[in-house]
Amino acid sequence: MPATTANTTLSLILPVLDEAATLEATLTALAPLRRRGVEVIVVDGGSRDDSAALAAPLCSRVLHSPAGRARQMNFGAAAARGDTLLFLHADTRLPEGAEAHVARALASGRCWGRFDIRLAGHSRLLPVISRAMNLRSRLTGIATGDQALFMTREAFAAVGGFPDQPLMEDIEVSRRLKRRSPPACLRQRVTSSGRRWDSEGPWRTVWRMWRLRLRYWRGVAPEALAREYRHVR
């Protein structure tokens, strides 16, 4: 079966930048979905490692765009053939049968949604952080990019795609999509790398993320937050 066909209904879009360490395993895990007709698009933002070369034989297409997660995801969405779009981080694994879960969620009348998350790593606090993230998302209707956001193409177009900002693009698109429908909060879990929490410390990471998010809600420009985030990291 070809990687893409005229009747493809789901397109997965992976923005990458220097993700050679994890990308091959992520794409290999997506092989069953490709065999079932799901389109898998990798959008490289100018990697200096082997990301693009590693991805080429393991996905439907590799595209190249200016760096920036929002820009890369919008670029991939513009080229995608599916009626449904799912945005996946390079260090995140989807649950078995993800395409069926997404289809059922959207058939219920919601126009967008996300999965629950399980953070994989060494810290004993990661299961607690995972549960807190899922609960917060369910209560607020706001999702983060590592929860594998999905939406109809119509909803994506209606909100103008991801805002062209260097940070909090997932928070902002969630806010806009909420005006069209509540999110479908799937109990099935994606597994995402907890490397950030392991390397920087769980409490420090949680505090910094909440501080950045609070400042964003209070109107601080995402460009200023991105400069601070990059400096701290």
TrEMBL record:
Q: Which PANTHER family match?
A: GLYCOSYLTRANSFERASE (PTHR43646), GLYCOSYLTRANSFERASE 2-LIKE DOMAIN-CONTAINING PROTEIN (PTHR43646:SF2)
Q: Does the keyword Zinc apply?
A: no
What is the organism field in this record?
Halomonas shengliensis
User: What region holds the Glycosyltransferase 2-like domain?
Assistant: 11-103
| Pfam families hit by this protein | Glycos_transf_2
Top-rank taxon, per record = Bacteria
Instruction: Identify the keywords attached in UniProt to this record, alphabetized.
Output: Cell membrane, Glycosyltransferase, Membrane, Transferase
Instruction: Please report the name of this protein according to its UniProt entry.
Output: Transferase 2, rSAM/selenodomain-associated
CDD domains on file: GT_2_like_a
